[in-house]
Amino acid sequence: xxxxxxxxxRIVAQFQSATLGFLIGGMVIAALGTRLQIPNAIYQFIVxxxxxxxxxxxxxxxxxxxxxxMLIPALSAVAVGLVAVLLGAVTLARLPGVRKDDALATxxxxxxxxxxxxxxxxxxxxEEDIAYEAWVPALYPFMDIPALVLAIVLAGLAAGxxxxxxxxxxxxxxxxxxxxxxGALTALLLGLALGLLTRPERVVESFYDPLFRGLLSIxxxxxxxxxxxxxxxxxxxxxxxxxxxxAAPLVHGLIGFGLGYIAHVTTGFSPGGVILLAVIAAxxxxxxxxxxxxxxxxxxxxxxxxxSSTGIGTPVAIAIGIPLFIALAEQVFGL
Length: 335
Prior knowledge:
The chain is built from 14 helices and no strands. By secondary structure, it is an all-alpha fold. The chain has one domain: Na+/H+ antiporter like fold. The longest helix has about 35 residues, at about 200-235.
């Protein structure tokens, strides 16, 4: 009982973080009817800056890392992305009032990765002085691409079956290409390449690092406002989406934590790395995923998959998931 009480206290303590405060603050002012508007161009610039910073530091770390140590975490990321979509296909897609293409698009979004949630997780770990491998953000595409591809392929197969078609195939490469060309993944991969192939230490220390936390706070404020506005969209679809949006990030994150623990035991993957893998698993794509799924599953209702992701899934992953995984790691690893 004492251990449970301490565990809950540690979770509550995480809510004092400025990062979570800005997210909640954005939701509050939106609920109060604020007229504050932050242009989308600024939002896109902030995301680019954050992902470039994450990619640069990850690339610099990969130069010094043992690639063999990255293998199991990378395979774990692939597994989480695939399992997340399959779980959605056998749960959400079978609930009453839920269309299969809507459910698969939602599962694909929740299996993919949110750059904002990843950045928030990194900042919270830094605030707690929990070390992690800087190459962990490089796991982003290993989870993101398989999830989006599998969701679109399953939707294509389901559409062919419903139409009575045989031998229907869904081309994989166009989906992968569309995902890789997404703004978020492009920025991250560019940063990784520059960090790996050049020597950007001085520009990172003098420019990207000082701006990182400030830009993230603005991003959290925007996401909070966006999350509240998206809640209205969920009223147009089955309430099961709201249930799924609360449960899926936590379930996926716990799966990621479990696989990360296996990597910890087998390769020495750090406790901070385990937490970040869980955070990535809990996240749901808010930038690159929606346009990819709109193009790949055009019959899906954006109010279902974007509304449940942005309106509920992202706040749950950041405000509940990250503190939960940090508190869980403190219990498991004795941090």
